[in-house]
Design brief:
about 110 residues; mainly beta; about 0% helix
Length: about 110
């Protein structure tokens, strides 16, 4: 299973971005979807996750609760991460993952700076 992540960029603090993760499999809905991030010099961390199927059970790291929203469109085989009120500490490479196949996207850079 291949994943194509996109939507990263550079924004000022307080800005917003939406990341997308398109999967190559029509069985996309069968897997939970995760977004991870890795900042320079730090370990990769889980940021948000959503269950398989309708995705009725999203979960977030404490550091992004209330600011980030994970969602999925199974018909489009695509997952999303909407990021609001971005902070400099959100700067990282963001990766999507389908847990069922342990498939990872290539990463998309998010930089938050004034």
């Amino acid at each position: 299973v291949q994943l194509q992540a996109s939507g990263g960029g550079m924004v000022q603090p307080g800005g917003s971005l939406t990341l997308s993760c398109e999967a190559s499999t029509r069985f996309f809905r069968a897997s939970a979807l995760q977004w991870h991030r890795q900042a320079p010099g730090k370990e990769r961390e889980l940021v948000a996750a959503i269950s398989a199927g309708s995705g009725s059970r999203p979960d977030y790291a404490d550091s992004v609760k209330g600011r980030f929203t994970i969602s999925r469109d199974n018909a489009r085989q695509t997952g999303y991460l909407r990021m609001n009120n971005l902070k400099p500490e959100d700067t990282a490479v963001y990766y999507c993952r389908l847990s069922k196949w342990d498939s990872w996207g290539q990463g998309t850079q998010v930089t938050v700076s004034s």
